Amino acid sequence: MTYAKSYAAWQADPETFWMDAAGAIDWDRAPSKALFEDNAPLYEWFSDGMVNTCWNAVDRHVKSGRGTQAAIIYDSPVTDTKATITYADLQTRVARLAGALAQRGVTKGDRVVIYMPMVPEALVAMLACARLGAVHSVVFGGFAAHELAVRIDDATPKAIIAGSCGIEPSRVVKYKPLLDDAIEQATHKPEFCVILQREQCLADLVDGRDFEWDAFQADAPLADCVPVEGNHPAYILYTSGTTGQPKGVVRPTGGHLVALNWTMRNVYAVEPGEVFWAASDVGWVVGHSYICYAPLIHGNTTIVFEGKPVGTPDPGTFWRVMSEHKVASFFTAPTALRAVKREDPAGDYIGKYDLSALRNVYLAGERADPDTITWAQDKLGVPIIDHWWQTELGYPAVCNPVGIELLPVKPGSPAVPMPGYAMKIVNDEGDEMPAGELGAIVTPLPLPPGTLQTLWNAEDRYLKSYLTNFPGHYETGDAGYIDEDGYLFIMARTDDVINVAGHRLSTGAMEEVLAAHPDVAECAVIGVSDALKGQAPVGFVCLSAGVDRDHGDIATECVKLIRDQIGPVAAFKQACVVSRLPKTRSGKILRATMVKIADGADYKMPATIEDPTVLDEIGAALKTLGYPG
Ligand code: COA
Ligand code: AMP
């Protein structure tokens, strides 16, 4: 099979293409067809099939003889722990937790928030929800109480499952006080919480509301898998949009199973039984799709890694894990490789390990700079595959489909659209741009199986954010161009989203937090280029009339405010006070021009600028912060 043939097969007959892919999934009732168009443009896939995600990710592998194979390898340099959980072990653990949740009243459709560090129990909790048809919503541990509270209010969970703490190299992050604070802040209250007590920090439990993980399930019966409709939500995952209210991406069950399973062989080029490792976090979509679900659905061994690319204990950690556990395919964010390269530019640590099992390395989450790709390729001697996707889509949309055919790699491009997608570059009017010209990236509807079905509690926002500007198409929010060979190049976002260390963050959300500072009249947050993290947020605030306080103090308070409200993951370390912000005559803040000044890039004076002299003050303020670097 070649990429061209596979893509042409999808183009010629998408229905047959996806029904064939659905044949690799165990259905309790097979779907009569793939695409359901009754509610277009709210398309659905496999809606009349009945299926259970946990059965497909766990039980069927035990049944087919993989019971003794490792399902999860836990490798935690920060706690000096390693453990292996076989598929048979995993089945018992998941069924037991599901049984305990069911005894406490959790049933199909109930939401369960999961706030856990990178421990196998996080996957057990996700799968236990899937077993019951309950809808989990995992919240990344680097978010502060306020962000957790916003998600609790939106998802209205019956239960919350949390860890007592996460371990960062520099500190133990106590999750339980953050959870208590979030529940206090939220209007909605969960009926109960299950807390995994970790020896690094034992949390205080609230009587009658909180249950310790082991005690909670000690006497529970093993629960069976509950079949759900193909369009039943598997999970809600919140992601950054333009405002402080995150978007709750709803992932449908049937398409999720079919599409993820398809990618394991065709994109990631692994066979069942091999070891697959995505070094991300279960709080992100990469963690959902490629730490938890896809490898397990496909019968692979997945690695739960609790550590960082550097400092836990050295820049050889990735290579140690790969050699020790015989990783065949590895996935990380470019930032992680940049961090390793910075500490070990000659790749000396790589030479210390046997990486003979490794066949391919995949990068996503942010732009992969050609320097990093070339460095990794030279040092590792395997293809370094940049691929592009988003929380909304759930799995690679544009990539080099190594499992089908390794196409020529063009550093700087994630390559070509996968079956299901037909990326186009359009101008503001929706006209298609010629090859090489920049514009918004869109793809025709329907999106393929496993992509977002809607936004939780926000169907109008779903329609407005993605389907309205370019009718008949999904708007990705990214801008870029397609070259003569059909390769896509991603250049920028078209909205207020920035990408910090592969983490998607909203400058709009940060501005909402800064605007709440009592001395701040108006503000702007921009993403400036950062050699390690890709982008870094920088805040500018203008003070209310009559405020006569030390500007340094106010900047420090702004930094603290964002850390307290959004969390350390925002990596918001720099703010400054300016007298005015650069604006157009209609009042729009010229953030893109500010970014160009910070990056030392050429820029054209915007024709509509109200007062060009404001840019001098912005330039001077940026200089004091060290920009351009
Ligand atoms: N719980 C609590 N705090 C967390 C956290 C978690 N799960 N994850 C990160 N944080 C904190 C960090 O401790 C840090 O806090 P600090 O400001 O006190 O130092 C802050 O959030 C920023 O974290 P991070 O962006 O990870 O920066 P870092 O300097 O700690 O590490 C890298 C830099 C490059 C090593 C790291 O960002 C990395 O591994 N990136 C890869 C990202 C990735 O895999 N993304 C997933 C998408 S594929
Ligand atoms: P997330 O939803 O967190 O996965 O972030 C998705 C966004 O990250 C995309 O819309 C892009 O802006 C960016 N992104 C992801 N992968 C890539 C890539 N390979 N190259 C460039 N940008 C990427």
Automatic annotation (TrEMBL):
Q: Which residues form the AMP-dependent synthetase/ligase domain?
A: 70-442
- SUPFAM superfamilies named among the record's database cross-references: Acetyl-CoA synthetase-like
The answer to whether keyword Transmembrane helix applies is no
Q: What UniProt keywords apply to this chain's record, in alphabetical order?
A: Ligase
Q: Name one GO molecular function term.
A: propionate-CoA ligase activity
Q: Which Pfam families match?
A: ACAS_N, AMP-binding, AMP-binding_C
Please list the residue ranges annotated as the Acetyl-coenzyme A synthetase N-terminal domain. Answer: 3-57
InterPro entries attached to this UniProt entry? ACAS_N, AMP-bd_C, AMP-bd_C_sf, AMP-binding_CS, AMP-dep_synth/lig_dom, ANL_N_sf
**For the AMP-binding enzyme C-terminal domain, which residue ranges apply?**
510-588
Q: Can you quote a single GO CC term? A: intracellular organelle lumen
Q: Could you tell me the EC number(s) of this protein?
A: 6.2.1.17
CDD domains given in the database record: PrpE
State the top-level EC class: ligase
Q: Which domain of life is it from?
A: Bacteria
| Residue ranges crossing the lipid bilayer per the database entry | none
For this chain, the family text in UniProt reads:
Belongs to the ATP-dependent AMP-binding enzyme family.
Task: Write the protein's name.
Answer: Propionyl-CoA synthetase
